[in-house]
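Tutorial, part two.
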Amino acid sequence: MLRFCLLLAAAVLPLASSGLAQEGPYKLLKTVKVGGDGEFDYITADSNERRLYVPRRGPNGRISVYNLDTLEPEGEIKARRSHSVAIDPKSHHGFGTSVPVVMFDTKTLATIKTIDVETPPDGSLFDPFNQRIWIFSHLPPFVTILDSKDGSVVGTLDVGGAPEQAVADGKGHIYVDLEDTDEVAAIDAAALKVTAHYELAGKGGGPGSLAIDVKNHVLFVGCRHKNTAVIMKSDDGKILDVLPIGGETDGAVFNPSTMEAFFPSENGPLTVIKENSPTSFTVEQKLDTRPGEPCTENHPCAKTLTLDTKTNHILLIAAEFGPMPPNAPENWIRPILSFSVLVVGR
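Running the prediction step on this input gives:
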């Protein structure tokens, strides 16, 4: 996932009047610069509490919280090296994948407790099937499962590879893409057991994003190595179609209200795939997330995203980097000159 440093002041930018997108139903509604230092990764929309969570790592590690409607800041949660946030709307508990994992109250943003896990966490997922939080890591045992009601550790699971994004069908099944084995692991959420590995069959490599159409049992796998979306049945892994996406992707969402899957890319546009039927899919639109400018190393396009299910808006994050200093060490993080939240809608 992305590892960025943020050095910004809050401001709202006016939209450019032209050149925003290829022909299609979606457009860039607004761009909001948000301030504060710290690297960022996944973002999460809580459509019920109307909040947007942006984890930020670095010396001042925290989760920045914004109003989902106005994008005005609403508070911060102390969280060291956090990558993602998962929300249980029933218990009103949130979990940040920091070190240790932080459990907080989504109404007050107060920290409830911290939870130690065996390996550094990355992505996360709330499963409504049995009110559990799934914490994913690139190192064994790969997955830690928590009870979202009290934050207790239910167990761990080795999924056979390095997980990236995961989805749940709410009926006892979890799916997670494995970026190092080019597979999707299917998991029995009750038994905490991997039931199958679905191979991408050379159609895509380095899967970095995953979305699901729960009703029709369809998975959308975003692949970085070939810039493709591999579309398969969640029941058995049968590949239904392979479509091009804009570039390297680090997140995906499916909107059941519009029957569309969305794939952002740091080196290309936001790709919208329309599900015409459970077996028919088309690229509906490719939308520029850096209108009027090319996507470059210092000026990447938006690479991660989240869905506001109330408004059907897609929210993305993008950054502008400063230059690398001479003789910088390999793990040196470039300074960010600006960091923006983008709102996309019809």
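The chain has a mean pLDDT of 90. In part three we will examine how such features are distributed along the chain.
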